Request: fold
Amino acid sequence: MRSERHGRLGSGPFDNDTAADWCGHLDDANPEDRAAMVQQALLRAAEPADYLDASEGCEAMAAIAIVGAERCGGPPVTSTYAPDFLLAGGRIEPSDDFVPLALRALDRVLGEDSELWQLWEEADGGRSLLAEIEPLRAALARGPLTGENF
Reply:
């Protein structure tokens, strides 16, 4: 049950209440609308703004993890708080242009003007988060998988 982690902020992309709630909405959405929901979460984080709110950062981290797994062969989505349809073997088909968008969103989440980064930094200097996302960043940096790099 998603509500078990009330108020917790873990270092995994799905390990907080906001991301878990967003994943619930993604589960409830029509399958044809899911890619657009992922794109919107990335855009909210990637677009220039004075300050990135923690809730937007949490949703973006979940979307970044989905793009990394679905498009770039990144760490698989296995968290019990991830979208149930992905855990059951379902898929989202993000387009290749989601990858640079996900990288921009990730840079923003890890930036000075990010409330989420400030929370992680206060907790342990951001070390647990950085260790968790390094394989994800590497997958995104490699880019979308094609028939040549499967």
Summary: The longest helix spans residues 54-72.
